[in-house]
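Data deposition worksheet. Section B asks for the primary sequence of the deposited chain exactly as it was used as input, without tags or linkers unless they were present during the calculation. Section C holds the resulting structure in C-alpha cell form. Section D is free text for depositor observations; keep each observation to a single sentence. Incomplete worksheets are returned to the depositor.
Section A, Depositor: J.P.
Section B:
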Amino acid sequence: MNDVLLERIAQALERISPPPVAAPDLSTASAFVWSPDPDRLVPVAKVSALDVGLLIGIDRARDTLMDNTRRFAQGMPANNALLWGSRGMGKSSLVKAVHGALHSDFPTLKIVEVHREDLPSIGRCLALLREANERFILYCDDLSFTQDDAHYKSLKAVLDGGIEGRPDNVVLYATSNRRHLMPRDMIENERSTSISPSEAVEEKVSLSDRFGLWIGFHPCDQDQYLAMIRGYCDAYGIHISDDDLRAEAIEWQATRGSRSGRVAWQYFTDLAGRKGVTL
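Section C:
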C-alpha cells in the first residue's frame, strides 16, 4: 500500500471522527458568536450596545432583567428570560445593555449569541460552555418558529437540559415579537384541523412556558417617543429646541407610519448627522 493511499485513508478517518474542539480562549473578549462547522466561539471585538441609561420607557423591564442577570453573575439562581412584544421597543438593546452595564463589576460574565439557524448545534455549544469557569448569557435574537420548524426541539436542550440539566453557568435570554414563539393564526389552524386539537400545538406553545421570566414590551406613546430622543440628545451633547425637536420628530414618525424606540433612534441618527456629531 503506497504512501498516497495511506494519506487519503488517514484524511477520510479524520473527517469521520474529527479531533475534539479546543477549549476557547475566553479572555479575549466579553462577547462571542457561536459558529458551528467547525464548532467555535468567535470573539466580538466591540459589542453594538447602548448605555442602559439611554433606554427610556422600559424601566420595569430593565429593572427585572438587571436583577435577574446580577443574581446570575453572582452565582445565584436565575431564570431564563423571554423578552417579547412590539418590534423596535428595545428588546435586543436591553439584553446587550444589561450585559454591558454588569460586565465591569463581573468580568467573568460573558454573552454568547446563537443564531436561530444554528440551534440544532446548541447541544455542542452547551458542552463547550459547561467546562468553562465563566458565566454565560446565551442570547438568541428574534426567535420564532414556523409550522414545519423543528428547531424548537433543539432549544429545549437549553431550557430543560435533558438528563444532564442546563449548565449552572448558562442562562438563556431570547427575544421574540410573539409571546408563544409561533404565529397566532398557525396556532388556531392546527387546533382546528388536528384530531387532537389540545395536543396539536401544546408542544410548541409550551416552549415559552419553560422561560421563568416573561418580559413584555408594548408600544410607546408620543411623550415617551419624544423623551427617548431628548435623552439621546442630552447624552451626546446635541442642542435643539423642544419645539424644533417635537416638530421634526413627529414628522419623522409620520413618514415611517410607526412610533417606537427604533424609530426614535433612526431620527436621532439623522439629526446627529445633520449636526455633525459622531455617535
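Section D:
The chain has a mean pLDDT of 84.
The radius of gyration is 22 Å.
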